[in-house]
What does this fold into?
Amino acid sequence: MQTIKATQVRIAAERFYILLEDGRELGIPYDWYWRLAEATPEQLNNWRLIGGGQGIF
It folds into this structure.
C-alpha cells in the first residue's frame, strides 16, 4: 500500500486545504475539529508538516 503525503496546507475562511503529492486536494471544514473551529486566524496559520508530510501540526 502506497503512502500519499501532504506537500502543502492552504488556510481559507471556513476550511483548510491539504495538497497531496499526487495532485489531489482535500478541503476539510474546521467544524470537524473543535480545536480548529475555535482557533484564531493567527493560530490557524501556525502549522507545519511533520513526518515528511505524513502529518500536520
User: Anything to note?
Assistant: The longest helix spans residues 34-37. Residues 6-56 form one domain. The two ends are 24 Å apart (CA to CA).
